[in-house]
């Protein structure tokens, strides 16, 4: 089983280092991310749930870690996270169902430290 809390922390450290060594692209991506998930017609929680579904559908464990963490931080409930996984499976089929199992691990891990 993947340690999604550890993966999240490690990725943050490496991305910070990458930001120092490649500030142009990384600062551009950071601005894109910040502006995209700001509350607008859709709230931050909804956008993070959408990003989680896409992360599952495209088979990205790092995305699962980040967007599970950020969705919970934005107030997503377990029920909302499970429905998000269902949408990802609908859109990604069998391969996404395998990554949905990974997302279940991430949900359990991040919910345990947020309570």
UniProtKB/TrEMBL annotation:
It comes from the Bacteria. Transmembrane segments: none annotated. One of its GO terms (molecular function) is peroxiredoxin activity. The keyword Aminoacyl-tRNA synthetase does not apply. Keywords: Oxidoreductase, Peroxidase. SUPFAM superfamilies: AhpD-like. Residues 26-105 form the Carboxymuconolactone decarboxylase-like domain. InterPro entries: AhpD-like, AhpD_core, CMD-like. This is Alkylhydroperoxidase.
